[in-house]
Amino acid sequence: MGLPQRLILTLLSIYLYSATVVNTQQEFKIQSVELIIEPRNDVTAGTNVTLRCHATVSTSTGKGLIREYTILKNDKIVYTKTIGSSEDFVYQLHNARVFSTGLYQCKLDIQGDTKLSKAQRLNVQGLSQPVLHLNTNVVNEGEEVQATCIAPGEIGSFIFFFFDNDEQISRVEGLSNQAKTTFRLSGADIHKIHCSYKIRTAEDTFPSTKSNNVTVSVKELSITPELKIFPDSTIYEGDHLNISCSAKNVHSSSEGYKLFLSQGTKLLRTGNSTINHNMVAVPKASEALTFDCRVVVRNVEKYSEKKISVVELFSVPSLTMSPTEVFQGQIMTLTCNSDGFASQRINREDLEYTLYPSKNLPSSGKPGVFNVKALQNDFNYTCSAEAKGIKKDSKTLMIRPKVHVSALKISIEDKVILKKSFTILCQSNGSLPINYTLFKDNVQVGTKVIREQNRQAVFMDVINEPGERQYRCEAKNSLHSNKTGSSQHLSVNVIVPLSQMTLAVIPSSLKISEGKELNFICSVNGTGPVTFKWYRTGSVVPLQTNTTTETYSNLEIKPVSKNDSDEYYCEASNGANKVRSENVNVQVFMAPWKKGLIVVACLLLLLLLVLLLVASMLNIKSKRDRREAAAELSVRSVFL
């Protein structure tokens, strides 16, 4: 290193050190940072764009500060630079392209203190027209063509598309503004090739216009496939088919090719020369048989296709049963039958039917007709029809033998009260659905159909006249049989509500002497059993409770006493209702002999009182006489 270079480095070090010392000594404040896009935010492709970063910074000394500017696009750093002046920082976008579109910001950093500008959007519009180049304009069928698509002047993330007569044939992605691809063209025709591209940004995708068209002529190969099928007239099921697949117009023995013979999606044979294939014609449901012969040479594929219809020799048999419903142990008829057959090849008598399983089946004497006894559980049958070595099976027939109704029961859920509805239940075992019929005194009342397991048939009825009624249920679950199940007769006694209640008292006089007998007789209209209860007013505990089949009952009190004086009433109930009598006021008086005894006692007491009074008076008089005699004696002694 020479002296001038060392001197420059020394001076630069001194300057940077001085600037650092100055920066550490002065205070500053970043007031604002603003990003300006010049000449404007919306420009066309190719415009030179300037991103100007203007910052306002206040300092304590007014001297310059070391500033670090960063340009961001869509939050990603694009460019960073450190400067020592306070002038605006400028970032140039020369020849701006669509890929330059985005949100830009400017960030200022001074000694770790940062400030970010508001985002400014730059919109660049207009993509250049792509240019297409091909390596040739004339090719043989099957040869490769190399194409190059260029997006002049563009940058970014590209997707290139190549088209043959507006049909996309290739797609290439990359970061380069040009893409290459190869493809093959088939068929003797004129092909117009063009390309286009798209540029992807963080926010959107921008498509270009179409490129120039390049015309390519394709020379078709003369080789063609040939497909032959014998017989070529009406083909019946079971006929032997001879199919051949070959190539025609093969002019050069050095030209290699390969043949492929297929039926639908099934590959039958392949080969490098004529292919022969033998098979038995089997019809396909409602479709013709499709055969395909293909020849492949030099990546060129050509094919010939033929469709043939195969007449069914006889139709797939169907297995049916009669009757359509069957019960356990019942004899039924199973019929195996092919509805259609080719009368040109076979007669109906040529068809042989077999039932599976076929153990110990009684003969019916008719082809395809079998007599079978239904088992106790579910079972399956199939049958087959066979003629001229061709055998066809029917679909499986699953037979579910039904169970006759049994154990039919009838019951009543509610109390049967005159002129009120009540519920009658019928239930039985057996296969569903079950039809129930209710009879009252052998007259049909109604019907119900039960279609769910463990469900009862529910009937509602009303009895409007007193007396006994007979109910029964019948159940049936066969459409083709009159066999029914019948329940036992259910006798129903209707409960007549109680009414017209009376309460009689014996003796009829409500005033009774102690020691007598007192009888209450309570009677009602209605049906028993009836429960009678007697009460004294003010008490909730009955004096007596009695249940009887009669419509009357009595309460006896003997002997009565004055404590039995009170109001009495009677209640009666029979399950339909409850009635109460009027209150009866009973008064119990003292017995006559008690009254006489009281009179005698009173007289004796009065007599005793009189005697005591007389005795008292006599005693008083005696005392007075004695006092008078004593006084007289005293006077006499004085005078003496």
Overview of this protein structure:
With 640 residues, this protein is mainly beta. The protein has two helices and 51 strands. Strand 46 and strand 47 form a beta hairpin. The longest helix is centred in the C-terminal third of the chain and has 48 residues, at 592-639. This is Ig-like domain-containing protein. The chain crosses the membrane at residues 597-618.
Tag the structure with descriptive keywords:
single chain; mainly beta; six-stranded mixed β-sheet; 11% helix; flat
Low-confidence spans: 7-24
What structural class do helix, strand and pairing data support? mainly beta
Q: Could you estimate the helical fraction of the residues in percent? A: 10-25%
Q: How large, in whole angstroms, is the Cα Rg? A: 64 Å
Summarize model confidence as the mean pLDDT. 86
